[in-house]
Design brief:
Number of helices: 4
Structural class: alpha+beta
Distance between the termini: 43 Å
Order of helices and strands: EEEEEEHHHH
Number of strands: 6
Radius of gyration: 17 Å
Helix content: 25-40%
Strand content: 15-25%
Shape: globular
């Protein structure tokens, strides 16, 4: 069973690897239809990412296919295609942006960004930790309403 990686959050710039394609600049995004950025598939945590290509393609990838974005791409050999260069320049221009500003720059609706993200509470593999957090939240809610 895989464990989620806490550094992978919406708005984070990453290098993403898909099939035979080179490592590509991307951003972890929130899937608007589901309001999620993370889910499980076959026991593996997968993250919703949007490639910084001209079409802004998106997919779900496991954390093992993602790396923190740096100015040095992981393991890309040889000359890169012009569309890769454009994606790199786009990512480079977003380095100093906040994660929220990155999401807004991709056209993600502000109301989606501001909502609590379903899936964030599911980041732990421990059911016990979830129950404790829910109990604590319930106690805080009932004591603040008194």
């Amino acid at each position: 069973m895989s464990r989620q990686q806490a550094w992978l959050q919406p708005g984070m710039l990453v290098w993403a690897k898909m099939l035979e394609f080179p490592w590509w600049p991307a951003i972890i995004t929130i899937r608007e239809e589901k309001g999620r950025f993370i889910t499980r598939s076959k026991g593996v945590w997968i993250y919703h990412i949007q490639f910084l290509d001209e079409l802004l393609s998106y997919t779900w990838l496991p954390g093992s296919n993602l790396r923190p974005f740096t100015l040095n791409p992981p393991c890309n050999d040889g000359d890169m295609a012009p569309d890769w260069e454009e994606a790199f320049v786009r990512a480079e221009s977003m380095i100093d942006m906040t994660p929220v500003d990155r999401l807004l720059s991709l056209g993600l609706a502000p109301d989606i960004i501001e909502k609590p993200v379903p899936g964030a509470a599911d980041l732990t593999d421990s059911e016990e930790e979830r129950r404790k957090a829910q109990a604590s939240s319930s106690r805080n809610t009932s004591s603040s309403s008194s």
